[in-house]
DNA sequence: GTGTCATCGTTCAAATTCGAACCACGTGTC
DNA sequence: GACACGTGGTTCGAATTTGAACGATGACAC
């Protein structure tokens, strides 16, 4: 292994800030959803993706990839949402192995009810704490990072 | 509740990017530490904080606050590290209830051994994916957010 | 068609996470 | 000192998370 390139002061500042903000934001968002709506953030994200997918629904693998979560965890959470009647699971037409998840009308209701409180919290702990230039800069920087991470999917290992 | 202020396109872009990057980065960092060093990121962070605290060590509560993690989880992880001989726990002098955690020489060794691989991964999935202006902008924006979150500790709820 | 290999989603066991309840102890008041 | 009240850490149980193993297909070559 080559000699370690340690983080300089600015890089360290970026990493630390990223770490701390992430912890704070997710803890806060998680708490809000749980207390007010009885949903975990993971479940909320699933509902959002399925809502965006509409009637067609989404294959489990596609959903897992787009949520950047292990498949086994997704199986668990979707099962949970299915029990609650917010989501359905049906065999895929084109591939017997495949399973398509769809949001139910009740799932849509729950999502619509949860959205305002969730958005408000996201504003409180992140969005509204920056001015517009900072917001744009953040979106730009993380957008770049995200794009490169997508390219090299798995290339990181 | 006032009418919901939904996120506009730019705000949404920032939030989505933040979400996705966070998931990818933490998953990758977690995997690297686990595979290469047998440590969770939580444990690594504890060792870093204790290492910075030196001989004096840190009180559990202080540590929990600085790691932005629930106390019960910290108790668990510190217990785990103590079993592995990387950390010690001793009663606090000034307060019998208090517990001071300290890193052991072996803990320092483990940390020093783990650091290069960890830093390399952090570079791969975040730091090195931005140019310098983006890095600075990220540090600025998240630094601002972090400062405001610290002020209003708990004020979010 | 038959064999081989990747893919799909689930299942499994083990580890971790969380908040709430809890006990022991400081802190301040009278 | 006795009291009420806040704090420090741990314990507890329930829910969740993870990668690895698994069974059942697809896909593709021969």
Automatic annotation (TrEMBL), chains A, B:
<dbReference type="InterPro" id="IPR036388">
    <property type="entry name" value="WH-like_DNA-bd_sf"/>
</dbReference>
<dbReference type="InterPro" id="IPR036390">
    <property type="entry name" value="WH_DNA-bd_sf"/>
</dbReference>
<protein>
    <submittedName>
        <fullName>DNA-binding transcriptional regulator, MarR family</fullName>
    </submittedName>
</protein>
<dbReference type="InterPro" id="IPR000835">
    <property type="entry name" value="HTH_MarR-typ"/>
</dbReference>
<dbReference type="GO" id="GO:0003677">
    <property type="term" value="F:DNA binding"/>
</dbReference>
<feature type="domain" description="HTH marR-type">
    <location>
        <begin position="1"/>
        <end position="147"/>
    </location>
</feature>
<dbReference type="InterPro" id="IPR039422">
    <property type="entry name" value="MarR/SlyA-like"/>
</dbReference>
<dbReference type="GO" id="GO:0003700">
    <property type="term" value="F:DNA-binding transcription factor activity"/>
</dbReference>
<dbReference type="GO" id="GO:0006950">
    <property type="term" value="P:response to stress"/>
</dbReference>
<dbReference type="Pfam" id="PF01047">
    <property type="entry name" value="MarR"/>
</dbReference>
<keyword id="KW-0238">DNA-binding</keyword>
